[in-house]
């Protein structure tokens, strides 16, 4: 049955049971996933897309939306719920695209991962340069979390409450993260408490890159989570983004790392998986590169499937056409599971 089209978007959502032409429903990712296991993608829009020579993917690309609906059972706004988009002025929120994504998800029986509430990046200038007192900043963060989480209460499965709060050596980001710098580390617990008050059913996560394996950074999360749980702070999950590169070996201790957080009683998740590679001069990956990429994706999926409570597995975009990778890493690319024309790679 086709459900209502999302409000505020140029295009209607495809019917919930839609599958792209020439493709059997049983051949989609969401169909083959085990019961209760969500297979997700970032929803392309905002961020780097704004400087690219194409219109906003989510609101403009019909084929993109068809594949998004057909293949995935979880969606993560790539940029559209970040502060600079959803809270562009102190007294103004812009919910249009975030609403449209949540409505699209509901129309297509998908869950949503909210991204993100407390981060050092993609904050609006009014916030970063506002010269606010600590009391004002605390009020601003509390109001933001209460408003945004409250608006989607009951409709967001998992929130990345705190994103990338540690640096590579496992130190808290006390300079570039405005919240930790101005309010101290205690603000992290408050962010989780406020999010929980606004939506008691949402699973609240720490999310970061470079924490796939057991290392200084993931150790820092482990210690922090242990302390917060002992203090009764509502922390429910730990997620590894998993922006991987074939330049480096696969983090073979991913499963062990996820398991130690599961053993603390947390949900775990893979939230932003992609596997980039150095592109040959003609821009076309070799068969061997594609095989290595497939192996990395498979190992990441296997690690998650093997850990109880790792029920959410998200890739950071599904087509190279809209990937962030070539914009950030010169000479690298082909990081997603589909070519520009939405045909499938070996992975
Ligand atoms: O803010 C500048 C603006 O001043 C400038 O005029 C403009 C010119 O292009 O660029 C603006 O910055 C852009 C930024 O988004 C803010 O919107 C960057 O160019 C753009 O590359 C950036 O991209 C996003 C990036 O997060 C920002 O960190 C990507 O679209 C998005 O895919 C990426 O997603 C992150 C996750 O949220 C967290 N984990 C890592 C992941 C990949 O970086």
Rounded mean pLDDT score: 94
Order of neighbouring strands in the sheet with most strands: 1-2-3-4-5-6-8-9
What structural class results from the helix and strand content? alpha/beta
Rough shape? globular
| N- to C-terminal distance | 31 Å
Number of distinct beta strands: 10
Helix/strand order, N-terminal first: HEHHEHHEHHEHHEHEEHEHEHE
| Global Rg | 19 Å
Q: What is the name of the CATH superfamily?
A: Glycosidases
Helical residue percent band: 25-40%
In the CATH hierarchy, the architecture is Alpha-Beta Barrel
Q: Uncertain runs with pLDDT below 50, 5 residues or more?
A: 1-10
- Largest sheet, if any? 8 strands, parallel, barrel
Number of helices: 13
Count of folded domains: 1
Please write the CATH class name. Alpha Beta
Percent in strands: 15-25%
Instruction: Provide the list of bound ligands, each named once.
Output: ligand G3I
User: Might you state the CATH topology name?
Assistant: TIM Barrel
């Amino acid at each position: 049955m086709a459900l209502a089209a999302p409000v505020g978007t140029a295009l209607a959502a495809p019917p919930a049971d839609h599958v792209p032409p020439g493709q059997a429903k049983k051949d989609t990712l969401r169909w083959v996933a085990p019961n209760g296991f969500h297979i997700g993608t970032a929803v392309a829009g905002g961020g780097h897309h704004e400087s690219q020579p194409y219109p906003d993917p989510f609101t403009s690309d019909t084929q993109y939306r068809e594949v998004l609906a057909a293949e995935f059972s979880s969606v993560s706004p790539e940029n559209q719920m970040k502060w600079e988009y959803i809270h562009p002025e102190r007294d103004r929120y812009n919910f249009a695209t975030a609403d449209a994504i949540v409505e699209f998800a509901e129309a297509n029986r998908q869950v949503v991962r909210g991204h993100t509430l407390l981060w050092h990046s993609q904050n609006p200038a009014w916030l970063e340069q506002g010269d606010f007192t600590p009391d004002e900043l605390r009020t601003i963060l509390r109001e933001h979390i209460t408003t945004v989480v409250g608006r989607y209460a009951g409709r967001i499965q998992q929130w990345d409450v705190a994103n990338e709060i540690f640096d590579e050596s496992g130190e808290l980001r006390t300079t570039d993260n405005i919240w930790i710098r101005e309010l101290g580390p205690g603000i992290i617990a408050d962010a989780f408490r406020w999010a929980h008050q606004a939506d008691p059913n949402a699973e609240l996560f720490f999310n970061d890159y470079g924490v796939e394996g057991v290392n200084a950074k993931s150790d820092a999360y482990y210690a922090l989570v242990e302390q917060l749980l002992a203090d009764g702070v509502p922390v429910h999950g730990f997620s590894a983004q998993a922006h991987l590169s074939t330049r480096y070996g696969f983090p073979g201790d991913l499963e062990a790392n996820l398991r130690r957080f599961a053993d603390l009683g947390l949900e775990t998740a893979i939230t932003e998986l992609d596997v980039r590679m150095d592109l040959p001069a003609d821009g076309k990956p070799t068969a061997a590169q594609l095989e290595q990429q497939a192996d990395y994706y498979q190992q990441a999926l296997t690690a998650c499937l093997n850990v109880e409570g790792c029920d959410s597995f998200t890739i950071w975009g599904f087509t190279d056409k809209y990937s962030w990778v070539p914009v950030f890493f010169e000479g690298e690319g082909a990081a997603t599971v589909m070519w520009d024309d939405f045909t499938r790679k070996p992975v």
